[in-house]
Amino acid sequence: MNKIDKLKQIIKESNNIVLFSGAGVSTLSGIKDFRSKDGLYNMKYKYNPEEILSSYFFFNKTNDFYEFYKDKLNCLDKKPNIIHKFFKKLEDQNKLKCVITQNIDGLHSKAGNKKVLELHGTIYKNHCINCNKEYSAEYVFGSKGIPKCECGGIIKPDVVLYGENLNDNDFIEAENYVSSCETLIVVGTSLSVFPVSGLVRLFRGKNLVILNRDTTPFDSIASLVINDEFDKIFNELDC
Ligand SMILES: [Zn+2]
How far is ligand 1, taken at its centre, from the CA of residue 139, in Å? Predict the structure, then answer.
């Protein structure tokens, strides 16, 4: 049996699937993985992206933060791709119980998935650091300079920056889903970013499936690993 057929069989036989998705899922939608070799990290900018996307930078060089943020992280016009749509369908079939994602582009929600845990936050939520009023991504990306609240406070994206903690409640919920699911499908992440990578260690189910372009530290304990191009894998899965 080839690997795609094996994956089809696993999905067919599982009714408690959890998806864990990373930046690789978004690349088919034209969003760059800022950790990959050709991603944001290697683009020329005044500071390196890891520095800019930090809590320190946000509060101390807010203007520069927003210049970069609006330029590089605006994915308002991006659309869900074949991977997002595939997992939306699995949720509709009541097979997929939860999407856990490291992505901040909101594409799983845009695809229509209802249960999505965005561990690194999302560009679609923003709030005033002074009065907590919420603002849309359109407002933030459309503003000139630093986006400001009507109270005068600075608006901050609900995106987890370097130096900030993940949302505890979401993470605990993710842990519960991972530790109790039958099949965990990991797509598009090298599982190298802690603490998110530690989630996989909690898996106690039957099938750990890893779909990624490169190898991951969990490949040796996985039931199925496919290192291939995603459009090829998901086109075959879909038919
Ligand atoms: Zn305010």
Answer: 14
**What distance in angstroms lies between residue 148's CA and the mean position of ligand 1's atoms?**
8
Q: Concatenate the DSSP letters of all residues of 20-53 into one string.
A: EE-GGGTGGGT---TTSTTSGGGS--SS-HHHHT
Is residue 84 part of the annotated active site? The answer reads: no
Q: Are 107 and 118 in contact (CB under 8 A)?
A: no
- Helical spans, DSSP H, in 111-208: 137-142, 168-180
Burial of 71 (0-12, 13-18, 19+ CB in 10 A): exposed
The bridge status of strand 183-187 relative to strand 155-159 is unpaired
> What does the pLDDT look like over 158-168, one tens digit per residue?
999 999 999 89
Calculate how far, in angstroms, residue 10's C-alpha sits from the geometric centre of ligand 1: 49
Q: What is the mean pLDDT of residues 168-193?
A: 95
Of all residues in the chain, the percent with pLDDT exceeding 90 is 84
Give the chain's radius of gyration (CA, Å). Answer: 18
In whole angstroms, what is the distance from residue 121 CA to residue 103 CA? Answer: 8
CB 218 within 8 A of CB 210: yes
Decide which of 46 and 221 is more confident: 221
| Average model confidence (pLDDT) across the chain | 93
Neighbours of ion ligand 1 (CB under 5 A): 128, 130-131, 133, 149, 151, 153
**49-68 tens-digit pLDDT:** 889 999 999 999 999 999 99
- Ligand 1 centroid to Cα of residue 127, in Å, is 8
- Give me the amino acid identity at 142: G
